[in-house]
Design goal:
The complex is a heterodimer of chains A (561) and B (280).
Chain A: H1 2-30, E1 34-40, H2 43-51, E2 60-66, E3 69-78, E4 89-94, E5 105-109, H3 119-129, E6 137-144, E7 147-156, H4 160-164, E8 173-177, H5 188-192, H6 194-197, E9 198-202, H7 209-220, H8 226-233, H9 236-249, E10 259-264, E11 269-274, H10 313-320, H11 322-336, H12 352-370, H13 380-405, E12 415-420, E13 426-430, E14 436-445, E15 449-456, E16 477-482, E17 488-496, E18 518-523, E19 526-530, E20 533-535, E21 540-549, E22 553-559
Parallel strand pairs in A: 1-6
Antiparallel strand pairs in A: 1-2, 2-3, 3-4, 4-5, 5-7, 6-7, 8-9, 8-10, 10-11, 12-15, 13-14, 14-17, 15-16, 16-22, 17-21, 18-19, 18-22, 20-21
Helix pairs in contact in A: 1-12, 9-11, 12-13
Chain B: H1 2-5, H2 7-28, E1 42-57, E2 63-82, E3 87-100, E4 103-118, E5 127-134, E6 152-162, E7 167-178, E8 185-195, E9 200-211, E10 232-243, E11 248-261, E12 263-277
Antiparallel strand pairs in B: 1-2, 1-12, 2-3, 3-4, 4-5, 5-6, 6-7, 7-8, 8-9, 9-10, 10-11, 11-12
The chains are: A alpha+beta (561), B mainly beta (280).
Chain lengths: 561, 280
C-alpha cells in the first residue's frame, strides 16, 4: 500500500514537473510570435529544391494554404553565399492576383549564416520597438507536404505598398544602394556613378533628380544648421532610429549599402528604412580574409564607437551636430534604461537583464524546434553557445556605451575595480575605454570587498605552467587583487580575451581549439588548473567556486595543453 | 574588309566548312552535352570557324592528295533555354561556306533541335540528349555539299567529373541515326578543362566519329572528302577561354584531324562567345 502511494506520489510529482517545464517553455514561446506556413509541391521538386546545386536558379510550382484557401505560385532558393548551406533561404512568388498577408512575394530567410538564428530577429525587434517604418518580421515554421522543414524568418517584401501602410503613400521616390557597388553613401559622387551605386525601385524610371538634389543639399549643408535641415527634409526619427539601431547592434555593414531611402510625397520628407543585419551583435567583416571567411569568421567585437561604419554625410553631420547628437543619446539612454532628461517614451530594450530574458526566450523556442528540422544549419550546442555570446555582447556593449558614450570615464586602460557588498552580487570590470576585462559573481563572502583587476593584453604570457607551450596560450595575462585585508570569498569568475579580426587577436599561433582552453591560476607560487568553460564565440573563459583571500595577488593564464 | 570584298567566295567557303564540322564540332563545342540550364535561363552562343584541307584519308586510312584545296568557314548560332530544372531545350544552325577549286557553295546547313535531360537528379553535368537533325533545303546531290540532306536523330549521354580543384573532364557519346543512305554513326568526345583563374581557363579535347558501316549506298561522290556515306575521324582541339563577366565569355582555339578513313584531313581555327541571361 505504501509502495503504491509512493509510486502515485512520484507520478504526480513527475506530472507536476512536466507541467511546470511545459508552462515554462510555452510561456517563453508565447513571448515570441511564430507563424506557420504550409506548402504543397511535387515530392520530387520538394526534394530537389534543397538538394540541387547551390547556384541553380530554377523555380518550381508550389501551392500555399492560407485561411482554407489554396494559393499558387513558384518557389526558388534565394540569396548568394547562403545557398551553399543545406538549409536554403527561399522565395515564393504567387501568381498574379494572389496574395498572402497582402503580398505576392514571400521571402523566407533560413538564417543559415547565423548559428544563433536570432540576430536578424533581434535587430528587427529593435527596429519595431523604435516604431520605424519597416517590414514585418516573423519566425515561421515551414511545412512542405505536411512535413516540417524548419524554422525560417519571414521578412515582409519591402515595396511602396508596405510604406503606404505607414502613411507614407506609395507614389514616392524609392531608392536602394546597390549591394555590389559599396558606394550608395548619399555623397554627390554616388549619384554621379548611379549605375554602380543606386537602384531606383519606384517609380521604375531613370529619374534620379530627387536623389541628386538631396545629395547636393547634404554636401552643402553646414553642420550647425543640420538639425534644421533635417527637420525640414527628413523624418528625423527615421534617421536617428536607423543610427541608434546600427549603434546598438554594432552593424557596420551599412551607410553605403543595406538600407532604403524613400521620399514620401504625402509627408514631403525623406524616410530611411534599415536592411540586413547579418553582420551584427558582435559578428563583423574581416578585411584580412578572403570571401567567404571574411564573413563567416570567429571574430567578436562590441567596442566600436558611434561613428562605426563607412562615411555618409547624413551620419557624419548628424553626429557632429550637438542638437541631433543629444537627441540620439537620449534615445540610446531610453533603450538602455538609463535616466533621461524629461519624459522618454522609448521602451527599455537594451538593458542586459532585458536582453538576457529575451535571448533565453528565443533560445527555448528555437532549441525546441531544432531537432525536428529536416534541413538545419546549426546544432543545439552551437545555438546555445551563440546565444550565450549574444548575452555577453549585450552586457559588454551596454558597458561600453554607458561608460564611453553616455557616461564619464578616466580613459585609463586595462584596469578596473569593483565593490562587492554581499553574496549574489555580480559585477564586471570595465576599463576606462569601456572594455569589459572580466566579471565575477560572489557566491559567499565574509564582508564587503574591493576587487581590482589588470590585464597584460596582446602579449604572450611571461609565465605559464610547466610543460605548457606558450604559443598554445591566449596572449593575455589577467591579474586579480583583493585589496580588502582579511577578506575571504568564493566567486565565479570570467575573463574576456580579444579576437577582433584575423590580425588583431590574442589567439596563440599554435592554439587550434579555443574550446579546449584551460584556465590556470598562480596560487601560493604554484600553478593550479581550474575547472574551465569557454565560449569561443564571445571569447569568454570562466571558472567556478574560486577561493579568493584578501591582500593577495592572483595571476591567470589560459592555455591548451 | 578583305572578306567583304569577296563576300560570295567567302560565304561559299563558309557554308562548306560547316558541312564538315556540323558533325564534329558540335561534339566538342563548349556547351554541347552534359550541362543543363537553370529553369528560365537562356544562353546564346556564336562559334566562328575556318579550316583548310588539301589531303584526305582513303578507305584504308592512307593519305590521298585532294584534287583541290578546300576552305571552309562557318558561323554557328546556338541557343539554349532552361524549360524546367529537368529539361533544357536547344537549337543550333550554321551559316556555312565551302570552297574547293572553282566549286563553291554557301548557305544554311542542317538545323538541330534538341532536348537535354538530367541523369543525376541533384547534380549538373550528367545528361542525356536527343537531337533531331533537319536539312535546311541545301542541294545534297552536288559533290560539294552542306549536309547529307537527310533527317537524322542523335541520342547521347554525357558526363562531367572533377579531377582536381581546378580541372575536370567532360565525356560522352551518342548514336546518330540517318533516315536515308548514310551509315549511322557512333560519336564520342573527351574534353579536359583547367581553370587557371576566375577568368581564364584552358581546354583540350578529342572527338571521334565512327561509322557503323550500315550505309545503303556506295560512297558518295564527294569533292572535298567530307560527308561520305561512311567515314571515321578523330579530331583534336586545344583552346583558351576568358570570362568577361558573370554572363559573357569568349574563347579561341585550334583544331586538327589526327586520323581518319574516307574523310578529309583538316586543320583550322575558331573563336566563340557565349552570353547567358534570365535567371542569374
Amino acid at each position: 500500500m505504501s509502495v503504491g502511494k509512493s509510486n502515485k506520489a512520484v507520478v504526480m510529482l513527475s506530472l507536476f514537473c512536466a507541467l511546470f517545464m511545459y508552462w515554462n517553455v510555452s510561456h517563453a514561446q508565447d513571448t515570441i510570435p511564430v507563424v506557420s506556413l504550409h506548402l504543397e509541391m511535387k515530392a520530387r521538386d520538394a526534394d530537389v529544391l534543397f538538394k540541387k546545386e547551390p547556384y541553380d536558379r530554377s523555380t518550381f510550382p508550389v501551392q500555399l494554404f492560407h485561411d482554407g484557401e489554396r494559393l499558387s505560385g513558384r518557389i526558388e532558393v534565394k540569396g548568394s553565399f547562403s545557398r551553399n548551406f543545406d538549409k536554403k533561404s527561399l522565395k515564393i512568388k504567387l501568381d498574379k492576383g494572389q496574395l498572402w498577408r497582402g503580398q505576392r512575394r514571400i521571402a523566407l530567410n533560413a538564417m543559415a549564416t547565423d548559428a544563433s538564428m536570432m540576430r536578424e530577429w533581434l535587430a528587427w525587434d529593435l527596429v519595431h520597438t523604435l516604431g520605424m517604418a519597416a517590414p514585418s518580421v516573423n519566425f515561421t515554421r515551414l511545412y512542405i507536404n505536411r512535413r516540417y522543414i524548419g524554422m525560417f524568418l519571414h521578412i515582409e517584401w519591402i515595396d511602396p505598398d508596405m510604406l503606404a501602410r505607414f502613411g507614407l503613400g506609395n507614389d514616392g521616390e524609392f531608392f536602394h544602394p546597390r549591394d555590389s557597388g559599396f558606394c550608395g553613401d548619399l555623397s554627390t559622387q554616388s549619384v554621379t556613378k548611379r549605375e554602380r551605386c543606386w537602384l531606383k525601385l519606384s517609380p521604375r524610371d531613370q529619374d534620379f533628380s530627387a536623389l541628386e538634389q538631396l545629395t547636393e543639399q547634404l554636401q552643402e549643408m553646414a553642420v550647425e544648421d543640420f538639425d534644421t535641415f533635417l527637420e525640414q527634409h527628413f523624418d528625423v526619427d527615421s534617421v536617428i532610429n536607423w543610427m541608434v539601431t546600427n549603434i546598438i547592434t554594432s552593424n557596420g555593414d551599412t551607410y553605403n549599402k543595406n538600407y532604403f531611402i524613400y521620399f514620401s510625397r504625402d509627408k514631403e520628407r525623406w524616410v530611411i528604412i534599415p536592411w540586413d543585419f547579418d553582420l551584427s551583435f558582435g559578428r563583423n567583416w574581416d578585411e584580412f580574409l578572403k570571401y567567404p571567411d571574411n564573413i563567416l569568421n570567429d571574430n567578436f567585437q562590441y567596442y566600436y564607437p558611434l561613428e562605426l561604419g563607412l562615411p555618409n554625410p547624413l551620419k557624419d553631420k548628424l553626429l557632429k551636430n550637438p542638437v541631433l547628437l543629444k537627441r540620439l543619446k537620449q534615445k540610446l539612454r531610453g533603450l538602455m534604461g538609463m535616466p533621461v532628461e524629461g519624459y522618454s517614451a522609448t521602451p527599455v530594450w537594451f538593458k542586459p537583464s532585458v536582453m538576457h530574458d529575451r535571448i533565453d526566450a528565443l533560445t527555448a523556442m528555437l532549441v525546441g524546434d531544432l531537432h525536428r528540422e529536416r534541413y538545419t544549419a546549426t546544432s543545439e550546442q552551437k545555438l546555445r553557445e551563440h546565444a550565450r555570446a549574444l548575452k555577453d555582447y549585450a552586457s559588454f556593449r551596454y558597458n561600453y556605451l554607458r561608460k564611453t558614450v553616455l557616461g564619464s570615464t578616466d580613459w585609463v586602460a586595462d584596469r578596473a575595480s569593483v565593490h562587492i557588498d554581499k553574496a549574489g552580487d555580480t559585477e564586471s570590470w570595465v576599463d576606462g575605454f569601456g572594455l569589459t576585462l572580466g566579471s565575477m559573481q560572489a557566491l559567499s563572502l565574509n564582508g564587503a570587498a574591493d576587487i581590482s583587476t589588470e590585464v597584460e593584453k596582446l602579449a604572450i604570457p611571461r609565465y605559464v605552467p610547466g610543460g605548457v607551450d606558450v604559443h598554445r596560450c591566449i596572449k593575455r595575462t589577467w591579474f586579480l587583487i583583493d585589496k580588502t585585508p582579511n577578506s575571504n570569498m568564493k566567486i565565479n569568475l570570467s575573463w574576456q580575451y580579444l579576437q577582433e579580426n584575423s590580425r588583431r587577436n590574442e589567439i596563440g599561433k599554435k592554439l587550434k581549439d579555443e574550446s579546449k582552453l584551460e584556465l590556470w591560476v598562480l596560487y601560493y607560487d604554484e600553478w593550479k588548473r581550474l575547472p574551465t568553460s569557454v565560449n569561443p564565440v564571445s571569447n569568454v573563459i570562466s571558472t567556478t567556486n574560486l577561493d579568493i583571500r584578501g591582500g593577495r595577488y592572483y595571476r591567470f593564464v589560459a592555455c591548451q595543453r | 574588309m578583305i572578306m567583304f570584298n569577296s563576300i560570295n567566295k567567302w560565304m561559299a567557303a563558309w557554308a562548306r566548312f560547316l558541312l564538315i564540322f556540323s558533325m564534329l564540332v558540335t561534339c566538342v563545342s563548349a556547351q554541347a552535352g552534359g550541362w543543363l540550364r537553370s529553369e528560365g535561363e537562356h544562353r546564346y552562343g556564336a562559334h566562328l570557324q575556318g579550316s583548310t584541307s588539301d589531303k584526305s584519308w582513303d578507305r584504308d586510312g592512307n593519305d590521298e592528295i585532294s584534287s583541290c584545296t578546300s576552305k571552309n568557314r562557318s558561323l554557328t548560332h546556338d541557343y539554349e533555354y532552361g524549360y524546367s530544372y529537368y529539361r533544357t531545350l536547344f537549337g543550333r544552325i550554321s551559316m556555312s561556306s565551302s570552297e574547293c577549286g572553282n566549286d563553291k557553295v554557301s548557305g544554311f546547313s542542317d538545323l538541330y533541335l534538341g532536348v537535354r535531360g538530367r541523369l543525376k537528379l541533384y547534380k549538373n553535368g550528367y545528361a542525356w540528349e536527343a537531337i533531331l537533325i533537319i536539312p535546311s533545303g541545301y542541294d545534297s546531290d552536288r559533290s560539294n555539299r552542306l549536309g547529307y540532306g537527310e533527317v537524322g536523330l542523335d541520342l547521347g549521354i554525357y558526363g562531367t567529373s572533377k579531377i582536381s580543384q581546378k580541372s575536370s573532364i567532360n565525356y560522352g557519346g551518342s548514336l546518330r541515326f540517318w533516315a536515308g543512305a548514310p551509315a549511322d554513326q557512333l560519336r564520342t568526345k573527351l574534353r579536359w578543362s583547367y581553370r587557371h583563374s576566375d577568368k581564364w581557363s584552358y581546354n583540350a579535347a578529342l572527338a571521334g566519329n565512327f561509322s557503323l558501316n550500315n550505309s545503303d549506298s556506295a560512297p558518295f561522290n564527294s569533292l572535298t572528302g567530307d560527308f561520305e556515306s561512311e567515314f571515321d575521324v578523330i579530331r583534336a582541339e586545344i583552346g583558351v577561354r576568358r570570362r568577361l563577366s558573370r554572363r559573357l565569355g569568349v574563347g579561341a582555339g585550334v583544331f586538327k584531324t589526327l586520323w581518319g578513313r574516307d574523310t578529309s584531313q583538316r586543320e583550322g581555327l575558331f573563336i566563340n562567345m557565349g552570353y547567358v541571361w534570365g535567371r542569374r
